[in-house]
Amino acid sequence: MASEKRLEVVTCTAPVNIAVIKYWGKRDEELILPINSSLSVTLHQDQLKTTTTAAISRDFTEDRIWLNGREEDMGQPRLQACLREIRRLARKRGSDGHEDPLPLSLSYKVHVASVNNFPTAAGLASSAAGYACLAYALARVYGVESDLSEVARRGSGSACRSLYGGFVEWQMGERADGKDSIARQLAPESHWPELRVLILVVSTEKKPTGSTAGMQTSVETSALLRFRAEALVPARMAEMTRCVRERDFQAFGQLTMKDSNQFHATCMDTFPPISYLNDTSQRIIHLVHCFNAHHGQTKVAYTFDAGANAVIFTLDDTVAEFVAAVRHSFPPELNGDKFLKGLPVEPVPLSDELKAALGTDPTPGGIKYIIATQVGPGPQVLDDPGAHLLGPDGLPKAAA
Ligand code: DP6
């Protein structure tokens, strides 16, 4: 047919998520099945997102991928697992009888281009947004409509939680084949409009141990991790779900901090020990507890993943005062005016009482910058053809 399209192309975006009940440890390395369930908050894509274009064509001779403009090896096992899984789902759909006949496009090779709107150098976890976006874009281009948890999860465990907006749980599941290890939304982003998120990007020289290797050693050596997963996380999941449902910030904040601390305790219990927190991280923890003690209640909460950056949860009425406290304790070194990115935060003066309560000597330059954001929606399809990162020839556009 002369009118047949030579190129099927789709562009999607996907968000970053931050766990408040942490995933750490796999029971199956190949299928990426966790030893405990986890719960996360999806961050808004206005501040942090991955954009991915997937294109298929019968003219393509091999699967190819470009990340932030550079071609990468499509042979990486996790990329291969995602591709295999999406093609399996597409085949399944085509052979379901009442569905469309097996699409020819299944035999087509795919080209993928992906970019982040935030600097990878900031050390912010980009793999969750990246693999969620890949799964979403591949599903659209191959016509897959089923649950994508497994596709995203095979790229990176935490990526399955980036398939939804708002508040998301990843149920660990019980089956050996992982079919019940899926993400699902607990509440949409509109559920708790006052919730705010501040990412404190901490200066680091050293690259930390990656999550995959770190959690593997933890599973092998930490008895504390096993105890946490089996005896503590189930009740914590239930309690965190209640906190979210009832928008109980006090309890939400406390459990978020305790779960982050427990995760880092399991890292210390790993042998040889792993430490992701640096001096500045410890000072941030101290600052948060001083701030809360001054107010006599939990107004802000921290959480840390496999790195020194802090993610702070608070409510809209507390953002300005907390940012002023951060500026006071960590005076910006070079980029005074660029210190705050994302949502606008009005400058407010700090009371002498709060200054006194914060105590410790200021640490200039300990925090590089702050990104102010909020809870956001899940992956989106971009309809504007101008958004495609691949041109009509299936290769990255010059700007991509
Ligand atoms: C500390 O999902 O990056 O951020 O499944 O090996 O790719 P892999 O690990 P990954 O681990 C995330 C660990 C964490 C906690 C969390 O996000 O739940």
UniProtKB/TrEMBL annotation:
<keyword id="KW-0547">Nucleotide-binding</keyword>
<keyword id="KW-0753">Steroid metabolism</keyword>
<keyword id="KW-1207">Sterol metabolism</keyword>
<keyword id="KW-0153">Cholesterol metabolism</keyword>
<dbReference type="InterPro" id="IPR005935">
    <property type="entry name" value="Mev_decarb"/>
</dbReference>
<keyword id="KW-0443">Lipid metabolism</keyword>
<feature type="domain" description="Diphosphomevalonate decarboxylase-like N-terminal">
    <location>
        <begin position="14"/>
        <end position="183"/>
    </location>
</feature>
<keyword id="KW-0067">ATP-binding</keyword>
<feature type="domain" description="Mvd1 C-terminal">
    <location>
        <begin position="197"/>
        <end position="382"/>
    </location>
</feature>
<keyword id="KW-0152">Cholesterol biosynthesis</keyword>
<dbReference type="Pfam" id="PF18376">
    <property type="entry name" value="MDD_C"/>
</dbReference>
<comment type="function">
    <text>Catalyzes the ATP dependent decarboxylation of (R)-5-diphosphomevalonate to form isopentenyl diphosphate (IPP). Functions in the mevalonate (MVA) pathway leading to isopentenyl diphosphate (IPP), a key precursor for the biosynthesis of isoprenoids and sterol synthesis.</text>
</comment>
<dbReference type="GO" id="GO:0042803">
    <property type="term" value="F:protein homodimerization activity"/>
</dbReference>
<comment type="pathway">
    <text>Steroid biosynthesis; cholesterol biosynthesis.</text>
</comment>
<dbReference type="InterPro" id="IPR014721">
    <property type="entry name" value="Ribsml_uS5_D2-typ_fold_subgr"/>
</dbReference>
<protein>
    <recommendedName>
        <fullName>Diphosphomevalonate decarboxylase</fullName>
        <ecNumber>4.1.1.33</ecNumber>
    </recommendedName>
</protein>
<dbReference type="InterPro" id="IPR020568">
    <property type="entry name" value="Ribosomal_Su5_D2-typ_SF"/>
</dbReference>
<dbReference type="GO" id="GO:0004163">
    <property type="term" value="F:diphosphomevalonate decarboxylase activity"/>
</dbReference>
<keyword id="KW-0756">Sterol biosynthesis</keyword>
<comment type="similarity">
    <text>Belongs to the diphosphomevalonate decarboxylase family.</text>
</comment>
<keyword id="KW-0752">Steroid biosynthesis</keyword>
<dbReference type="GO" id="GO:0019287">
    <property type="term" value="P:isopentenyl diphosphate biosynthetic process, mevalonate pathway"/>
</dbReference>
<dbReference type="GO" id="GO:0008284">
    <property type="term" value="P:positive regulation of cell population proliferation"/>
</dbReference>
<dbReference type="InterPro" id="IPR029765">
    <property type="entry name" value="Mev_diP_decarb"/>
</dbReference>
<keyword id="KW-0456">Lyase</keyword>
<dbReference type="GO" id="GO:0030544">
    <property type="term" value="F:Hsp70 protein binding"/>
</dbReference>
<keyword id="KW-0444">Lipid biosynthesis</keyword>
<dbReference type="GO" id="GO:0005524">
    <property type="term" value="F:ATP binding"/>
</dbReference>
<dbReference type="GO" id="GO:0005829">
    <property type="term" value="C:cytosol"/>
</dbReference>
<dbReference type="InterPro" id="IPR036554">
    <property type="entry name" value="GHMP_kinase_C_sf"/>
</dbReference>
<dbReference type="InterPro" id="IPR053859">
    <property type="entry name" value="MVD-like_N"/>
</dbReference>
<dbReference type="InterPro" id="IPR041431">
    <property type="entry name" value="Mvd1_C"/>
</dbReference>
<dbReference type="Pfam" id="PF22700">
    <property type="entry name" value="MVD-like_N"/>
</dbReference>
<dbReference type="GO" id="GO:0006695">
    <property type="term" value="P:cholesterol biosynthetic process"/>
</dbReference>
